[in-house]
Amino acid sequence: MNVSTGYQQETGRIAFLDFLRIIAFSSVLIGHNFYDQAKSFAANSSIHATPRLLVGWALPLSEAGGAGVVIFFLISGYIISRILTRQSTWKFLFKRIFRIYPLYIAAVLMQAIYQWRIASPIPFSVLGPQLLLIGDFFATPYSLGGVEWTLRIEMVFYVLMACLQSLGLMHNRAKWLPWILLICLWVLAFLPPFPISPSWSKGYTNLYAPFLVFGIFIDLYERRRVNFVWLACVGLFVCGQHFFLISKYQPSWLNAHFAILALALFLVCWVLRNLFIVNSWILFLSSLTYGVYLFHLWTWRPMGDFLQRVRLPWLPVDLQRLVLLLSLCLLMNYCVERPAIRFAEKLLQYWSRRFSPLNSSGS
């Protein structure tokens, strides 16, 4: 079994992020599909107190999958900042498109086909913005059971970072980057809630996008672009801003602790990052992260309906659904996600050879 510590020299992966990805998708999966069972388990006095205590401790990290979302955004900010120091703007956007869209489009189309079979087809006026991840600008309903909202924020973040990269703020003008990011935080603090619809996601961009920015600051501190005072002040500002905006836009979460717990967990793992050791199982589970996120919610009921018809009594239905979900995500990882990433790499290599200055000068 191959193991390595800290940075994955052969793949460019960062070990502690693989662990955090697994924790993040577990939080989302449990929070959306197993939270009630876990809560009942923790309150069941007929079960020994120790496992109930452990499950009770884990509940705040699983509530509504909120901790998983915060961890995902911290990871994204941290890794995108690092990527943009070594990639050009167009290459970054090209690779991000092939990283996000193919599997997402496959999931949305699969859900649309299922919806068409059980009810009525989704109008293209809805499906189009959903597929392009621009639905917030057209008040389009979310797809995939609602998880799409995070990807919409991600895409806006990618465009913003690409613009900053094109202005030289990742290299020769890097000293201005912290100030620009600080302005972005202030804008998010005072911007009207977005999305503006009075749905469960009201103001989610204002509430959660700051964690993307803080992920960037963690990377900047690690690369000695900002000092500890900068990092601490921005971290306190992000937490204070989140708590203040929660009270304005999502008061139902006033008693939830997932944001600060997720931030603390990320920081602990980051501080201890050189101690992490990964193996093939960790990498395997980490590779399923995106698929689990896209498929875990909207497929849960159809899988349950299918298993009720098949009737395998020797295993609990929820465990069977979990096995089916992971199998589907593995299939989509091998059939859609990985081929799309490889195709993007091959296109980049071809364009690099075809349009390089060396080839141009020799022709």
Commentary on this structure:
This protein has 363 residues and is mostly helical. The chain has one domain (4-351). Helices cover 71% and strands 1% of the residues. It has 16 helices and two strands. The chain has helices spanning 15-33, 35-43, 49-62, 66-83, 89-118, 124-132, 148-166, 177-190, 204-222, 228-249, 258-271, 280-287, 289-295, 300-310, 317-354, 357-362; strands at residues 4-5, 277-278. A two-stranded antiparallel sheet has the order 1-2. Helix 8 packs antiparallel against helix 9 (204-222) and helix 14 (300-310) crosses helix 15 (317-354). The longest helix is centred in the C-terminal third of the chain and has 38 residues, at 317-354. The chain is globular. Residues 1-11 and 358-363 have low confidence and may be disordered.
What tags apply to this protein structure?
363 residues, mainly alpha, two-stranded antiparallel ribbon, 16 helices, 2 strands, 71% helix, disordered N terminus
Write the layout of secondary structure elements.
Layout: E1 4-5, H1 15-33, H2 35-43, H3 49-62, H4 66-83, H5 89-118, H6 124-132, H7 148-166, H8 177-190, H9 204-222, H10 228-249, H11 258-271, E2 277-278, H12 280-287, H13 289-295, H14 300-310, H15 317-354, H16 357-362
Antiparallel strand pairs: 1-2
Helix pairs in contact: 1-4, 1-12, 1-13, 2-3, 4-7, 4-9, 4-11, 5-6, 5-7, 5-15, 7-9, 8-9, 9-10, 13-15, 14-15
